Amino acid sequence: MSSSHRYPIGISGQKWSDKERATWLDQVTIKRSYQKEVVTKLTPLGQHFDLLQYGALSYDTERYPLFAIKTRNWDSNKPTVLITGGVHGYETSGVHGAIQFAATEADNYSDTFNIVVAPCVSPWGYETINRWNPNAVDPNRSFYQNSPSEESAGLMQLVESLGGDILAHIDLHETTDTDELEFRPALAARDGIDYDKGMVPDGFYLVGDTDNPQDQFQKAIIESVRKVTHIAPPDGEGKIIGEAITQEGVINYPTKKLGLCSGLTNCTFGTTTEVYPDSPRVTAQECNDAQVAAVKGALDYMLSVTQRQ
């Protein structure tokens, strides 16, 4: 249903101009440090992995370098797995879950897979706890040619530089209370449309690809995460965030059509994780653990498929 909520920036029913975007940017503040909370955790990983800088955001190139972690002994005969976090910078466990996986689990799978982890695709968004970049552009709707988001464009260039096919892509996200309190109302105001109030699911869920759903792959991830945290139930209409579930804890989106990060490759296995950090039933560490469990569930499933072939 349409909400009577009115966002404080812009005129109802009118898309934002550069003036409104500038007004929005003026009220954004730095709330945490990418360098202290993220980069300092990446540096020690360079002892065991290849730590590469694949770019830097033009907003402040020294403050916002873009890093990825690659397993060593890269072999074109091994399948490649891409793990991304922080495409939406405010989704904290996506960032720290990716780093935790690299630090604790990636090496266990490196004999079978080439693994590349881009843990914080949107460092400005991380620092400002924001869904958009400074231009009021959503990086996770911008994975297409001539992208308006340099965060998205940078990741696409990284993937292209790897060469070869990507077998799997696991994109780590969160759904938070601020989605309905701030970000979706802001989106409606930016685009000059009515804000339709939604419900934030309490628990973990996945977003697969409508055109390549890979149901057994998604199920394996859900079963892995279930050992760590609870799975989001559907609402009274059998939906999660307005989409019909295809199985417990799974919905599908047309990922390429929407320009989502999980649709940036032609991978066989792709998914987007969604953790709910505002649940009273979880801690921040459990959210990170859920992200790691999701990646492990994905990799273990692919190992089992390989062994059966």
TrEMBL record:
For this protein, the record's InterPro entries field holds: Peptidase_M14 (IPR000834)
Domain named Peptidase M14: which ranges? 30-309
Biological process terms in GO annotation? proteolysis
Q: Which GO terms describe its molecular function?
A: metallocarboxypeptidase activity; zinc ion binding
Q: List, alphabetically, the CDD domains matched.
A: M14_REP34-like (cd06231)
Its family remark reads:
Belongs to the peptidase M14 family.
Q: What is this protein called?
A: DUF2817 domain-containing protein
Q: Which organism is it from?
A: Photobacterium chitinilyticum
